[in-house]
Amino acid sequence: MTKVEVAELWVRATDEEAAAQKVRDELTTSWAYAGHWETKATQVDVVASDPEPMAPGPQPVAPSGPMLLKLKDAATELGISYGTLHALMKDGGIEYTKVGSGKYISRASLAAFIEANTQR
Fold first, then answer.
1. Strands across the sheet with 102-106, in order?
2. Structural element, H or E, at residue 81
3. Residue ranges of the Helix-turn-helix domain (predicted)?
4. Region 69-94 average pLDDT
């Protein structure tokens, strides 16, 4: 069986290489499809890019609110998808707290993640 997929994906990145890498990362993320899929080749073509004004840097995490955030809320605070946040947690890129069977991320962990991953 051969499966070919064509996808159009919009990403926000600083340059074309970063955009292509984000797409490659997204394609290699396992999303619990039934069965076993093996990637034979991946081709990423950047069709267009819109220049964005230079951002002043990472925005600080809001200091007010609950100390622990649900994963969905933490992803929103960071401006990333839930899946990306989950992958970061799995890889140890961001610390989280377990309370019972639930997982939460502290505001301090969000701030530490941003500081550790800010390129200067």
1. 68-70, 102-106, 97-99
2. none
3. 68-117
4. 92
DSSP at 52 = -
Question: What are the Cα distances from residue 36, in Å, to 4, 31, 83, 100?
Answer: 15, 11, 20, 32
Q: Specify the pTM.
A: 0.48
Long-range contacts of 92-100 (CB under 8 A, 24+ apart): 93/117, 96/71, 97/68, 99/68
CA distances to 14, 17, 43, 51, 58 from 55, in Å: 10, 19, 30, 12, 8
CA distance 74 to 88: 12
Q: For residue 43, list its beta bridge partners.
A: none
- Note the pLDDT of residue 105: 94
